[in-house]
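Instructor's aside before we start: the two examples that follow are unrelated to each other. I chose them only because their records fit on one page, so don't look for a connection. First example below.
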Amino acid sequence: MESVLHAWRMSRTLTIRITDAIAEWLKQTSQRSGIPAGRIVREQLERAMTESSAEEKPFMKLAGSFDGPGNLSTRKGFARR
């Protein structure tokens, strides 16, 4: 069996105040999953960051969902005269 050691260097520390409900959810989630609370918070922040950047370009949700020529002006009736 091979062992792999991963090392991540965290460059910033953030101290925040959270509600008792969030603290309890974080504690339970950490205990149930075996994942450290800090990692859970980091992953949630990364997910929020990814989702917010997708929201900045809502039209990209439609990318690749339409069939037809890439240049609609080549279709009959759409060409300039």
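Example two begins here.
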Amino acid sequence: MLLAFATSPIAWLIAALVGLILLVEDFMVYLDGGESALGDFWEPFKQALIWVKTKWNELMQAFEDNPLKPHLA
């Protein structure tokens, strides 16, 4: 019975979801500065998120500083 459950597609789906949840949780702990099991692996992702956040803020600032804003209102 246990072997049948372990080889069923539902068991594989549950295992994949649990694995994904654990990866996301580890990444969130790393971002908060905590002890992460995959700290070295997450560093490029953290740098990419910082870059995206910087570019997003620059884009939002460009829309706020739009010189045509008074003419478009």
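The CA atoms of residues 47 and 61 lie 21 Å apart.
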